[in-house]
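cron nightly-structures :: item 1 of 1
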Amino acid sequence: MNEHGIEELIGTLYEMIQDAKTVPFSGDKCSVERERVLDLLDEISNQLPGELKQAKTIVESRGELITSAKREAETILKNAQAQARQLVTQEAIYNEAKNQANEMVRAAQEKIKELKQVTNDYVDDSLRRTEEAVAEALSEIRDSRSKFRALVNPQAAKTNSAIIEDV
């Protein structure tokens, strides 16, 4: 199947369904070429913006990133606690080690907080871009559908335009 734009593929689907033969005694049901419809849907799916796949990957990897940050923080904390235990022999050194350990814990907690924020901002931005791409595609689909309807039934399109202008 040749590479076509999503609008053209959707237009082809509309034509196939509109031109499909009605199944006897079944109301609105019609018969279409399954393989051709599936091929068109596959092609549409393949052309969807990469951001959709990327956003899904980001959401899935977000948990892994947070888990990794927690492990890193736990390692830092364990290292800080180990250093503090080694320095117990002298009170001044012990107090210094304790302050360092607390600072490392605070730093680790800040790092986790920062990583969570960066991850959330990145996911939100990716989803926003995906949403914009999908909204743009939807707008193009609606415009194509309107143009298609105008081609199929010009009189109805003029009536719809007049109604829209009155609103």
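cron nightly-structures :: done
The mean pLDDT is 82.
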